[in-house]
Amino acid sequence: MAQLQILIADDSEFMRIAYKRILESQSNFRVVAMASNGEEAVQKAAESTPDVAILDIRMPKVDGIKVAHELLKRRPNTGIVIISAYDDLSFVADLMQGGSQRKAYLLKNSLSDISELIRIVEAVYQGHTVLDSGIVHKMARLYCKHSELLQTTMTDSEQDLLGLMAEGYDDAYICRALHMGQDQVEDNAESIYRKFGIDQSTTQTRRIKAIQAFVEQINKIPLTVAGDLVD
């Protein structure tokens, strides 16, 4: 199996080394470049062509989201993992411009188990959209409060399921977390797919499309309307 090539960009040397050690505990992961600022990240990405870039949102010279868009401009299939101290949904919306596939937005204060990075890097590499649980909860509150502005109405169970999908969890974990059988999870998933108009395809493809559709709908809520939750 070919190794998954990873770039790490963070202005903290301690965090760069910590991420590297965790990721390279996997035999199929290889950190091919590390950068201490956004400008250096763009340069090193051009030299090393990583499959996934892990980017701190606040870096000297160029911020992580601008770096992400520059990398995607050059190599559209690059997976992007933004690690941020900010749960501002406007940052998430900026990251998701141009599409949400192969992108993750994580909060530093909830990444207590740094080994979670392994799961998330793999998910992003496979094409998934992954959002931090704090971001998902904030989006769910927006969805409930401003549902009249959106095109799709979901039950509480469907929202819970879609939230766990957006956090990148598999069906086995979702069944345990929601105390549902596999059949119940599949029935709720089918209902979500119908509501978003997602055609028959592989389970993974439909899940990715559902998360993307949810992100796109939330992004339709004007930030001025959602300000009490975005600030």
Could you walk me through the main structural features you see in this protein, from its secondary elements to its overall organization?
The chain has 231 residues and is an alpha/beta fold. The protein folds into 2 domains: 4-131, Rossmann fold; 136-230, Winged helix-like DNA-binding domain superfamily/Winged helix DNA-binding domain (Arc Repressor Mutant, subunit A). 51% of the residues lie in helices and 14% in strands. The protein contains 11 helices and 6 strands. The protein has helices at 13-23, 38-48, 64-74, 89-96, 116-125, 133-145, 156-166, 171-178, 182-195, 203-218, 227-230; strands at 4-9, 29-35, 52-56, 79-84, 103-107, 129-131. A 6-stranded parallel β-sheet has the order 2-1-3-4-5-6, sandwiched between helices. Helix 1 links the parallel strand 1 and strand 2. It is globular, with a radius of gyration of 18 Å. The N and C termini lie far apart (45 Å). The model is unreliable at 223-231 (pLDDT under 50).
Strand and helix map with partners:
Blueprint (H helix, E strand, L loop, with lengths): L3 E6 L3 H11 L5 E7 L2 H11 L3 E5 L7 H11 L4 E6 L4 H8 L6 E5 L8 H10 L3 E3 L1 H13 L10 H11 L4 H8 L3 H14 L7 H16 L8 H4 L1
Parallel strand pairs: 1-2, 1-3, 3-4, 4-5, 5-6
Helix pairs in contact: 2-3, 6-7, 7-9
In short:
This protein has 231 residues and is of the alpha/beta class. It contains 11 helices and 6 strands. The longest helix has 16 residues.
Keywords:
231 residues, alpha/beta, Arc Repressor Mutant, subunit A, 11 helices, 6 strands, 14% strand, disordered C terminus
